[in-house]
Design goal:
Structural class: alpha/beta
CATH superfamily of the largest domain: Acetylglutamate kinase-like
CATH architecture of the largest domain: 3-Layer(aba) Sandwich
Number of helices: 11
Order of helices and strands: HEEEHHEHHEHEEHEHEEEEHHEHE
Largest sheet: 9 strands, mixed
Radius of gyration: 30 Å
Strand order of the largest sheet: 7-6-8-5-4-9-13-14-12
Helix content: 40-55%
Strand content: 15-25%
CATH class of the largest domain: Alpha Beta
Number of domains: 2
Length: 348
């Protein structure tokens, strides 16, 4: 009688939780309660104090249990419904995710350059328009970055602003430092456009700027940027270095060193470095490999000398390739020959 009295009191106080506990007991036919049972009065989980783990049961007020002593059949029916709902919820959550972990783990690729600093010039984004951003080019670049990101690469991106304004070619009479600041704002415009294109593809990203503008972007903080990369976010750097007289190539080389990037990839509209403009001269010679020193001595138009020197001093290889060819970012990260490599070894 004492045992049945305890059962009645607990069922009245927290009927769904007791029923959840009764189910396995009813199947075994052994006494159900001990001092280890903790019952919560609200919709909750029954806790087993022997192992400290929840049983996973969570009942709502719409439970089909009747007042009084439920039968084993009643308990089993509700348990089956709960398991089925849990399975459906799990499947729904998996399908609804923008990108599942399967897309990353299924590649099983070994990258030569697992962390990449990608430099995209403003001129590349303007396409054939001559000014501003060509939406088709912007979407293509975003798709390339998205594919590389889903393949497991850690990607940081530096964007130029030459499609809007370039400080070095400012109107005559304009202060150069002032002109460079205008150019920095142009890079932020491109960074925000790229972020929008990436997030439209379901890729989580962050824009960080060297000049604070907290309403639209995060301020550049090195440790936070590295954490974003580790958390599988694409980081887009805007506003160059935040200082005039430095190009966005130099900003990209600086960020590559700060992010501990394995490679500096310079995305262009041609498939490497040539001894002259391949668009104007069909006999232009393409270099497969170059040394930092050779770039400076031969005055090759890879990037400015400050950027090359930064890469040289930090032993960061530079890879110049055509971003308009699909899959090149991933192939380049794998170490495939997709452009010109500039490093300490040079031509072999």
């Amino acid at each position: 009688m004492q045992f049945m009295s305890r059962v009645g009191n607990l069922v009245t106080a927290a009927k769904p939780n007791v029923c959840a506990y009764l189910l396995p007991v009813a199947r075994r036919g052994s006494p159900p309660f001990s001092s280890s049972l903790s019952v919560r009065s609200s919709v909750s989980t029954v806790v087993d104090h022997h192992n400290g783990n929840g049983t996973g049961y969570a009942f709502h007020h719409t439970s089909s249990f009747i007042l009084g002593s439920p039968s084993v059949g009643d308990l089993e029916a509700d348990n089956c419904r709960r398991d089925r709902n849990h399975q459906l919820s799990t499947v729904s959550t998996t399908i609804g995710a923008p990108y599942s972990t399967t897309a990353i783990n299924s590649s099983n690729l070994t990258y030569k350059y697992p962390r990449v600093l990608l430099k995209i010039s403003g001129e590349a984004l303007q396409g054939k328009q001559g000014f501003g951003v060509d939406p088709s080019v912007l979407n293509h670049v975003a798709e390339e970055i998205a594919e590389a990101h889903r393949s497991g690469l850690q990607l940081a991106v530096v964007v130029g602003g030459g499609n809007y304004f370039r400080g070095a070619t400012a109107p005559k009479g304009m202060d150069r430092a002032q002109a460079d600041y205008v150019g920095m704002l142009a890079t932020v415009m491109n960074a925000l456009l790229l972020q929008g294109a990436l997030e439209n593809l379901g890729i989580e990203s962050r824009v960080q700027t060297a000049i604070e503008m907290r309403e639209v972007a995060e301020p550049y903080i090195r440790r936070r940027a590295i954490r974003h990369l580790e958390e599988r976010r694409v980081v887009i750097f805007g506003a160059g270095t935040g200082n005039p007289f430095f190009t966005t190539d130099t900003a990209a080389a600086l960020r590559a060193a700060e992010m501990n990037a394995n490679v500096f990839m310079k995305a262009t509209k041609v498939d490497g470095v040539y001894d002259c403009d391949p668009m104007k001269n069909r006999n232009a010679k393409k270099y497969e490999k170059l040394s930092y020193r050779q770039v400076c001595i031969e005055s090759l138009k890879v990037m400015d000398e400050t950027a090359i020197t930064l890469c040289k001093e930090n032993d960061i290889p530079v890879l110049v390739f055509n971003v308009m060819e699909r899959g090149n970012v991933v192939r380049a990260a794998l170490g495939h020959n997709v452009g010109t490599v500039v490093d300490g070894c040079g031509a072999v």
